[in-house]
Write a structure and sequence with these properties.
Radius of gyration: 25 Å
Shape: globular
Order of helices and strands: HHHHHHHHHHHHHHHHHHHHHHHHHH
Distance between the termini: 13 Å
Strand content: under 5%
Structural class: mainly alpha
Number of helices: 26
Length: 571
């Protein structure tokens, strides 16, 4: 990263000109390359499997293929530290990892294209897992390259280009394979998808090499080699890391299939394993197993990296450097107290957005048809999101990272207030269009601001590890709060029905169109005005929880001059 450009701002005309830069175009293609494998194995593959007559239970198990995306912080240090033979001298650290993973993705998709899921489901499952692992590893390298190849003034436009490409991949991988499968076959469809991934290889070859990464492969600290004891120690430490990754990844993905399989192997039996899986994935209470699972998993990974007291060993020294050094560098630059506040800000920044995970049921309760919801959210909403992302990128280039981060932390929760207007208006398409416009613009700005802010927290040599950790971290608290959204709406509705703290809100819904909120109210066992009061209470709650992030953002922003002064002094 070019630290000397940290304070530079771009004019609007300069921002527009950056959109024509080669790096931005490459970033858009790499965003598509990141999205294609994810959607092909997470979403589109399920349609193929269903047409082959597989059960829903078997199809759900395939979501394990994307578990790698929740666990990628575990092997991110490898992407930072390991130089690939032959490829690294030719392409550099980041591009070499990208192109290797893209080759694996292409081969994996090609082999899936040549498979028959009804005859060899295990083969398809293993290939999907391989594609998922390669896709997640490609993401690690792409994020690191995105951060290292430009100065901070261009962080915003690069983050926007990535998101543009990713959303393009969502549309491509969601629609094109289905069209091709209907016209020809699923095998032909996935063969075409494998061919499209060659565009990603072209993007890597077109991409600038980027900053060189200082790599230290082995921090042995003068410890003599002991091959046999080291082999046993490596096996034990890697077992802890894999077990920790299993718990953390299963918690982040809310998927208990692999953990249930392990429990079954340990002698719990099919019934015990299935009961555990059901409890782990239950909504909303499964989060009370998932979150401790994430904490336990991270603890096991940390334990695996702790040197044996009084007995220095090469595996202990290496893992302490691989995992401990990126964290140590972060807290060295920001200090203990501020470092914790920054991590807390990352966790809470998008909380107000994450809790809005029941908006489709909300629209259905109001009386909107599925076609109307798809029209506004899935078609127009994508355009509004892209506009918000672009606005966020412009704000970063024009006003700087910290100011945009503060604006974004306000915009996200405040935009949720517009849904109170929607609730009071009933199935009014004009109001829904207006609300989606406001909300998607705000969330586009906030999302871009967070990506750029997390990017700015990394440092050369640890970019992949630090960014992978940050991007995994901010999902944890979002999952906890989002899991309780439905319960908050229904309990608030029952409180309003019983004359509780929010009963006065019932008067806001006296003029709703006939039938609006009626079905949802009947399901919850309350009247329509009470359900409306429950939704209003929920939207107000989503704003209130955003206050914590706002306070943290101001504290961090106030300390920014001190951080920049320290960075200049060290430089």
């Amino acid at each position: 990263m070019a630290e000397d450009a940290a304070e530079r701002r771009l004019t609007t005309w300069e921002f527009i000109k950056t959109l024509k830069e080669r790096r931005v175009f490459v970033m858009l293609l790499l965003g598509m390359a990141a999205g294609l494998p994810f959607f092909l194995i997470f979403d589109t593959l399920s349609a193929w499997l269903r047409q082959e007559g597989l059960s829903l239970q078997a199809i759900t198990a395939f979501s394990l293929a994307t578990l790698s995306y929740s666990m990628k912080f575990v092997w991110a240090p490898m992407v930072d530290r390991v130089k690939l033979p032959v490829l690294e001298p030719l392409l550099g650290q980041r591009r070499s990892w990208m192109i290797l993973m893209q080759i694996i993705i292409i081969v994996g998709l090609w082999l899936i294209a040549g498979s028959d899921p009804s005859m060899n489901l295990t083969r398809v499952a293993l290939l999907a897992v391989l594609v998922g692992f390669a896709g997640a590893t490609q993401d690690i390298a792409i994020d690191a390259w995105r951060i290292e190849v430009v100065d901070k003034a261009r962080f915003g436009v690069m983050a926007a280009a990535y998101q543009w490409g990713f959303r393009g991949a969502m549309i491509t991988a969601g629609a094109l394979p289905l069209i091709l499968a209907e016209a020809f076959s699923w095998n032909f469809s996935y063969a075409v998808m494998a061919a499209i991934m060659f565009v990603a290889i072209g993007a890597v070859l077109l991409a600038p090499r980027g900053g060189e990464v200082v790599v230290r492969l082995m921090a042995d600290e003068g410890v003599p080699k002991r091959p046999i004891p080291e082999a046993f120690e490596w096996a034990a430490r890697l077992a802890f890391i894999l077990l920790g990754a299993l718990f953390a990844g299963s918690g982040l993905a809310a998927n208990g299939t692999l953990l249930a399989a392990v429990i079954n192997l340990l002698g719990a039996g099919d019934a015990g394993a299935e009961a555990f899986k059901t409890a782990w994935e239950a909504r909303p209470n499964g989060i009370f197993l998932q979150f401790p699972g994430v904490v336990l998993g991270l603890g096991l990974i940390a334990l695996a990296c702790v040197p044996i007291p009084g007995v220095p060993t090469r595996p202990g020294a290496y893992l302490r450097w691989a995992y401990g050094q990126p964290l140590g560098d972060f807290f060295r630059r920001f200090g203990g107290k501020l470092g914790v506040l920054i991590l807390a800000l990352i966790c809470l920044y998008r909380l107000s957005d994450f809790v809005l995970n029941l908006m489709t049921p909300f629209y259905i309760d109001l009386g909107f048809s599925l076609g109307q919801i798809a029209e506004v959210r899935k078609i127009y909403g994508v355009v509004a999101s892209l506009a918000g992302i672009t606005l966020g990128a412009w704000m970063v280039s024009r006003f700087g990272i910290i100011k945009t981060m503060v604006i974004g932390v306000f915009a996200s929760p405040l935009s949720n207030l517009v849904f109170i207007w929607v609730a009071m208006s009933g199935p009014d398409m004009a109001v829904l269009y207006a609300a989606i416009t406001i909300d998607n613009l705000a969330t586009g700005v906030a999302g871009t601001a967070l990506i750029v802010y997390m990017s700015s927290l990394t440092s050369a040599g640890f970019t992949a590890t630090q960014y992978a950790l940050f991007s995994s971290l901010y999902a944890i608290f979002g999952k906890i709060t989002a899991s309780q959204s439905g319960r908050i709406v229904e309990e608030s509705a029952r409180a309003a029905e019983a004359g509780g703290f929010n009963s006065a809100l019932r008067s806001w819904f006296g003029r709703l169109p006939e039938g609006s909120l009626a079905e949802g109210a009947a399901t919850a066992g309350v009247s329509a005005p009470s359900l409306g009061a429950g939704y209003v209470t929920f939207f107000l709650y989503s704003v209130v929880i955003g206050v914590f992030a706002v306070v943290l953002a101001f504290i961090v922003a106030k300390r920014q001059p001190e951080i920049e002064a320290r960075a200049k002094l060290e430089a």
